[in-house]
Amino acid sequence: MFKEIEEKIKEEKYQSAEEQLDKLIINEKISEKEQAYALYLIGYINSLWLNRTRNETKARSYLLWNIKSEYPNPNSYTLYAKLEKDETIAINYLKDGLNKFKGNPQIITELIGRVDNSEKEFYIKQIDNENIVNYDLLVRVLEILINRNEWHRVRKYAELVINNFELSIYQKNFFELLITYSYLFGNEKYEFEFLINKLENIIKTDLDNQLRYSPYLAMIYTYVIAGELKKANLYFDKISLNNSINDFNDGLNTIVDIDLFYIYKKIFDEIFKVYKTDIYRKNKAKALYILYLYKPSEFFSIYRYSKKDMETLEKYFNNYEFNIEVAVALYRMKLHFNTNIGAYEILIKILLKENKIENDFLEICDLFENISSEDLVIINNNVIDLLKSREIILEYNKNLQKFIDELICNLYQFKLYDRVIRLCNNIDERILRDLERNFEIAYSYAEMDEKEKALRLYEHILLKEPNNSSVLNNISIIYEELGYLEEAFKHIKKANEIEKDDIHTNNYDRINKKLENKAIIEKSNENKKIQDVCKNLSSENLENIGYNIILQKKLNNITDEELKKILIRDLKECAYSVLLGQNKSAIILSGSIIEALLIYKIKNIGIEEYDLIGLRNRKSKCIKTIDKMILDELLYVANKLKILSDTNYYLSHFSREYRNVIHPNKEIRGKMEISAENASLMWKILKEIIFELL
Q1: Contact at 8 Å (CB) between 204 and 251?
Q2: Are the beta carbons of 420 and 410 closer than 8 angstroms?
Q3: Rounded Cα gap, residues 193 and 197, in angstroms
Q4: Residue 248 DSSP one-character state
Q5: What are phi and psi of 564, to 5 degrees?
Q6: Is the pTM of this model over 0.70?
Q7: What gap in Å lies between CA 179 and CA 173, rounded to an integer?
Q8: Which of 66, 257, 387, 416 has the CB geometry, 3.0–4.6 Å to 76, for a possible disulfide?
Q9: Is the distance from CB of 266 to CB of 186 less than 8 angstroms?
Q10: What's the angle, vertex CA 148, arms to CA 143 and CA 154, rounded to 5?
């Protein structure tokens, strides 16, 4: 009946198994014993960590129903105790279970870990008396004895495990190590060679150092107390300063959850004594021991080290070859004692030394967790000095870039925008753009009125994040402050469409209102300008610029009536343009009238074509019809034919560029600027040519 359900549980098909069990417990045909087992299984399924839909309340209820049934399962007691928050209730049920299931190792294992020392001893004696041999139970007993420093009792239970269970190499080595410590610290008699051989075998087979140099320490201690220092040195010198010496209670391949502080202190005390005059080994031993004291702080925030330990480790760090593990430990110690500047000094050495850092406990952001603005400024000034001296090179060093990002972020949070700018002004803009804190940098530039740099960085952010409403909003504010309201409105409009909040809406309304006001003012100004210009257009002002009856009558000398009519019209319009400030029109009309007059005058004396040799240093013949010549060529011909005096010819050189203002693209490339001054000059040239030609 339960075989299929148990198979589903093994396959982690918990929901399907529970659905079957739910149907089963309401089936009247099943026996009371079967119903009790179904209740246990439902409780078991809902207590499993692997079950994502686990329900601890449901697990407690079903396990309790099983316990109170006529057919309780012994596992129900241990599972229920693990779920019960009230320790007294948990112990009561475990004891009740042990009464019903005498000598059950699972229940004793759970119970012995919860009761006080006197009761622990009672159950240990029960294990001995009833000869209960269970792996988990024996491991729990070893844990209790070791943490009480009762090493003289450890060997017995370690040997029971070795002799009764199939173990991996690591497990066997672990229990063999406990036996050696039992001899060394349990006041048991032992043969020196026996212990040395046992430790040599452990070291030989512990290929990956899973025992964390513990057998090396045991070997060193054994040789030291035997007075064989040279052999102790061999093993001591093999221990690496890689922060590997540790207790066996961090969950990494933990077999027995034990703290070795008591025996490691004894071992290192002996090492310190024998290396009193051996400066290098003495300092290395101190560093190893301090790293051991430091280790629990990484996992459990247990701080066994003191400030004096930190200072000792720093001396080692400063006097010997750089060691990343020592550096990281020292960094975290300084953070623990709130010496942020000291922590920074260690961190920057790490970052300068190591481009790729493989250490899970080096967090750059930790430096800034509780930092003051004063310390932040000191660090920032030092970083700037290092950038200036090229000791810090950010290119290709991602860790240094991450540090700079964190520094900028914290300066920004303290609103130290001027400090952000001082830092960033010493970093190449190309590298700045690769940093993560471009927004904070751009914001700081804007705050310090370096708007051009701010805009460049904001625009760079938009390339990667085109819908970043905060960036769009900030760009609009900069454009607004610079007076570019149209650009400002374009960006705030998009920001408001992406994320309509109070800030964006208020900015949108304000800029929109400014644009409306600007349009009203511009319209008013344009009307005023028109009125002012119209005032200039008077008979008196026309006379003043030379548009008088004498000039107009000169055009009557043109015999081509159609041409005369057009030029009278254009001359009048040109004069009006000069007075009205229509400079482009005045320049173009002046040039076109001069062209027309020159063509008329040259053709009027019977010349239809002319050789342009000599013009612009031309050395070969170039015969061209008069109608197809440009102003420059017409002026040349007229001068050669003595139609145009040398004075007016050279004066007219300025007018040759007039065609370049006709088209905008030519105007950009051309030499003639559209201005009132140039319009007046063209008008003057036109008058001179009219009087000479006609």
Answers
A1: no
A2: no
A3: 6
A4: B
A5: -60, -45
A6: yes
A7: 10
A8: 66
A9: no
A10: 55
